[in-house]
Design a protein that fits this description.
heterodimer, A: 115 residues, mainly beta, 6-stranded mixed sheet, B: 115 residues, 7-stranded mixed sheet, 4-stranded antiparallel sheet
Chain lengths: 115, 115
């Protein structure tokens, strides 16, 4: 079974629109970690954020914000006032304390921001 | 600070040839991971090391693949003999375990083409 589901395969938005990327995870662990990574067209994977299971506070970093809800097992990512440079594939990942440091990556959401 | 370094960045080889991919993790990191990324299968964990010791190699596709980490600052992934289906981008990542969690930092990847 897929531990991390990113149901949105591709999203296109017009520049300055807000966009939310969905991530739903599945785990039986009480201690786990969630991550978002960005993969721009150049190909490298860039770490964006880590969230621990015991910290449900939402986080905002500039135009980026993350909404962690344990009740729905979701860790969604919102980009406000999108820009062309936000065009990339975004991956959500899960790591469980029980299974050590292994990451379970979602299949990614390809975001295209149209100028 | 230098990030994860991978070499070569691109490799084109003929079927049957031996291929060696190299990785230098971030100094001080105690975990090293090798991933493969293809359009069909997404990001796949191949193997990971902790303090230079292989912990889980269940993702290694077959005996043609082998990985070593002779010291804390160097790892290799070898494919012998290579096949066209091995064509992919291979990423190396490293992380440092901390009580609050950890995140993996990825290298730029090696794009392997086997003809």
């Amino acid at each position: 079974a897929q531990k991390v589901t990113q149901a949105q395969t591709e999203i296109s938005v017009v520049e300055k629109e807000d966009v939310t990327l969905d991530c739903v995870y599945e785990t039986r662990d009480t201690t786990y970690y969630l991550f978002w990574y960005k993969q721009p067209p150049s190909g490298e994977l860039v770490f964006l954020i880590r969230r621990n299971s015991f910290d449900e506070q939402n986080e905002i970093s500039g135009r980026y914000s993350w909404n962690f809800q344990k009740s729905t097992s979701s860790f969604n990512f919102t980009i406000t006032a999108s820009q062309v440079v936000d065009s990339a594939v975004y991956f959500c990942a899960l790591s469980e304390a029980r299974t050590g440091n292994q990451f379970y990556f979602g299949t990614g959401t390809s975001l295209t921001v149209i100028p | 600070d230098a990030g994860v370094i991978q070499s070569p960045r691109h490799e084109v080889t003929e079927m049957g040839q031996e291929v060696t991919l190299r990785c230098k993790p971030i100094s001080g990191h105690d975990y090293l991971f090798w991933y493969r990324q293809t359009m069909m299968r997404g990001l796949e964990l191949l193997i990971y090391f902790n303090n230079n010791v292989p912990i889980d190699d269940s993702g290694m596709p077959e005996d043609r693949f082998s990985a070593k980490m002779p010291n804390a600052s160097f790892s290799t992934l070898k494919i012998q003999p290579s096949e066209p289906r091995d064509s992919a981008v291979y990423f190396c990542a490293s992380s440092l375990w901390l009580a609050g969690g950890f995140e993996q930092y990825f290298g730029p990847g090696t794009r392997l083409t086997v003809t």
